[in-house]
Each structure stands twice: as C-alpha cells, then as structure tokens.
Amino acid sequence: MSRQIMSVVGGKEAASTATYDSTNPARPAEVVARVGLADAATFAAACRAAAEAQREWAKVPAPVRGRVIASIGRLVEANAEALARLVTEEIGKPYAEALGEVREIVDTCDFFLGEGRRLYGQTVPSEMPDKNLFTFRNPVGVAAVITAGNFPVAVPSWYLVPALLCGNAVVWKPAEYAAASAHAMFELFTAAGLPDGVLNVLFADGAETFAGLERALGEGTVHKVGFTGSSEVGRRVGELTGRHLQSACLELGGKNPMVIMPDADLDLAAEGALFSGFGTAGQRCTSLGTAIVHESVHDAFVERLVRALSAATVGDPAGDVLAGPLLDRKFADRYEEYLTWIQPHHTVVSGPVGRITKDNPRGGFDGGEGLYYHPVVVDGVRPGDRLFMEETFGPIVGVTTFRTLDEAVELANLPGYGLSSSIYTSDARNAFRFREGVSAGMVSVNNSTSGAEAHLPFGGNGKSGNGSRQSGMWVLDQFTRWQAMNWDHSGRLQKAQMDVAEIVPDLDFRLAETRLP
C-alpha cells in the first residue's frame, strides 16, 4: 500500500490542491507514495511561518543547536538501512549507493555538530586608542531550499544541516518524484527536537514553487535561496533572487571531463570511467560527460572501458549492480532525446542502445516494464557536437582524442560547465598543469569525476553554478552574514581616517657612506 504524504508547515500538514504519484522506476506500476501538492500561496505561507519560528531558533545558543545536529546524525545512523531501502525503492538507486548516500548525511552532521562551537568572529585592532572592533556571524533568516531527486537525502543535508546550525529556518521543496524519501528525512530531522516551523517541507510542482518563491521574496520572508537542479532552471532562480538583491546558492549540472594521459594506468582509468559514467545510471551532476583520451592510448582505453562495461550488471537496484533504472519517466523521455544526438560520424562501441526489453536485451537481462536503458559509449565525438557540448543526464559517455595537454585542457573547458573534472596520469606536472588550467570547481587525480566528502567544498563555476560552495566550513558563508561592530570607550568622538595619530618618518634619512680600507 502506497504512503500518503503531505506538506508540513509550522508542524501541521498543509492542504493540497493536486496530487502526484511517486512510482518505483524499477516497477513503474508500483506507487511508492501519493503526494499532496501545495500551491504558491502555501509556499509563501510556509515562508512566513518559518520567519516567525526563526526568531526564537536564532536565540538558541549555537552549541545547543550543534547538539541538535548531533542528534540528527545519530537518528539517521540508526535508521540508515530503512532510509536507504526507501531511496532504492523510490528512485531506483542501487542499494549500496543509497547506503553511501545516507552515510553522507551522517558525515555532514558529524562535521557540523562541532561548528556550533566554532562560529567564530574576530577581534580586530583599531587604528584609534580606546576602541575595539569585532566581527560576528549572524544567521541570514529564512532559507528556501529546492533540491533535485537524484540524491534525495544527501544533497539536501548539505543545505539543511548548516542552515539550521547557523540559526536559520528552512522551507524545503524536494523533488516530487522523491517525495517519500524526503518526507522520511524530514521526520528524522524533526525527531531530533527541532521546534515547529524551523524546518518545513513543501511538495509542489515547478510552476507553483517559482510563483511562491517570487511572492515570498517580495514579502521579504526569504533571505537565502539554495537550488540544486538544471542550469536552465538555475538561471531563472538566479535572475529572480538577483531582482531582490540576493545571491542564490546554485549547484547545477555538469559536462564533466576525464583526461587520460599517455602515462595513465589504463585499467584504473577504465574503472574510474565506468563508475563515474554509468553509476547511478549516469544521473549524477558529477557524472562523466566526455573521456578526453590521448591519441596514443585511445584504442587501448576504449577496449578496456567497453570490456568493463560489458561485464557490468544493469538491473534490480536491490541487488549488486552497477546501475538500476532511470529516476522517473520524464528522465527516460529526455534520455531518449539525447540518443538522437548520435550522428553518422559517431561510432557506438558499446553495443545496443535504447531501453532494455525482451526485444532489445542486455546480457540476458529482461528489463520488463522498468525504466532500464543500455549504457552507451560513443566514440568519435567532436567539439561542437551536442553530445560534446551539452549535459546528457543518463548512461551515455562520449570519447574524443587529443595530442597535447594544452589541447586537452581547452577541450575540457569548451562546453562552459565547471563542476567536476578528472585526470589520469603518473606525472605530477601533468596533474598540476591540468588543475591550473581547468575551469572546474573540483579536480580529481587518478580518481573518478564523482565523489564528495563532507569537509570539502562542493560546487561549480560557469554553467555549473555561480561560484557558491556547499559542504565544509565554506558553506557557512551561504547561511550567515558578517556583522562588524566598533566599540569606542574613549569618552569622545573619534572619527575614522581623520583623528588617527600620525608618526612622521624622516624619509630623507640616509646612512653615512663608508669606504673600505
């Protein structure tokens, strides 16, 4: 029997104006949750409720808020398997990866629970006597957080945990197709003792969300927007927040390059390409887009990658598989459009393309009604091809060649994204030259393009984001505002830059000239 899920605003279920069925992509006829969708007015009301609750939450001492974050981590850890199974059921992520995703929440909590005691400001020396200068981190207020469903619990934690720790309230709008996972995570967070209204979860479609966000920004009840999703929608969110003199925290898509140098360990490189290109069925923002391979090792690398891919299992995400189904019907439809970008000058070296069925099988596996698709390697991709220039959210990887490292860096930067990148080489000079030249916010050496750790900054540049960073101490700048204070205890008005004591040097002084004997 499917779950019935509603938005929760101020600790109470909110009315819905429509419903959405979140289905299991491995068995699309199976409804995981029937989701009540809210409208723009409810979104705006949630932001007002959050603003009211935030005033009291900000007064809770930061170390106490840190203990709440610690409790969230322990609750998630105790419920890790149940939450991971729900993620697998709802979006088709292989169970081992789902467990890793849940672990990311725990790691994030473990990092930030101590930050409640380290929201440091500074004392700064003044240019005047009897005057002290200070800086403080203050919460921004209400954060509206909008997240995608390919990482339905890990990525939201990158926003929710630091935002709450810093004394903000949150209105969280998860993806509808991952609503059950999001609601379960919301329940774990609130079980840690968060007061009503400090964390609100709101389910709505894109149009109502955007309209509600626009209304809330106009009312002044949203002070920070976090968005994870496509570059196209990210631009609209950035434009909207910019009109209200805000900067959004944008984590967008990627066309992530992997450069294979002549001195690379080709077996290791093929393993990295397999995982980053086809793990989670290629539905990560950090998934491999194009393998940029030196012409001298092109054939050997492609042979290894295709062999590894042929041996990999695509199937039931509850089992030991490389990839399960695509997330949702809309992503399957979009992926089929990407397959039309394969041109006559391309060579598909991986075998069949399209949906896995009895008539289009993969290694004896019958995909049945599940949204399973053949992983595809397309060789001969050229700069300017859509397969080279645009994000392809699904199990498809392009391959092209280069002659010099400078050419490889140019190819890596050409699509205009800047999220993640990778280089395989045994020469440190190559690694550092690539790091200096590539536009990506994240660089891996002899590792895949995918993978994040809770204490490193995560984020991209160009079409992958606006330079904001998540995770680690860097994300604190997204959810706090610096406040400067000066305290003059001289008993008189001292004017900065005007009443400053001056010590006059003798700049004409010269040492007496001496002669050597």
From TrEMBL:
- Enzyme nomenclature, EC number: 1.2.1.3
| Protein name (record) | aldehyde dehydrogenase (NAD(+))
Q: How does it assemble?
A: Homotetramer.
Active site: residue positions: 251
Which InterPro entries does the record cross-reference, listed alphabetically?
Answer: Ald_DH/histidinol_DH, Ald_DH_C, Ald_DH_CS_GLU, Ald_DH_N, Aldehyde_DH_dom, ALDH7A1-like
Q: Where is the Aldehyde dehydrogenase domain?
A: 16-484
Keywords assigned by UniProt, alphabetized: NAD, Oxidoreductase
Classification via PROSITE patterns: ALDEHYDE_DEHYDR_GLU
Protein family membership: Belongs to the aldehyde dehydrogenase family.
GO terms, molecular function? aldehyde dehydrogenase (NAD+) activity
| The species this protein was found in | Nonomuraea wenchangensis
Any matching Pfam family: Aldedh
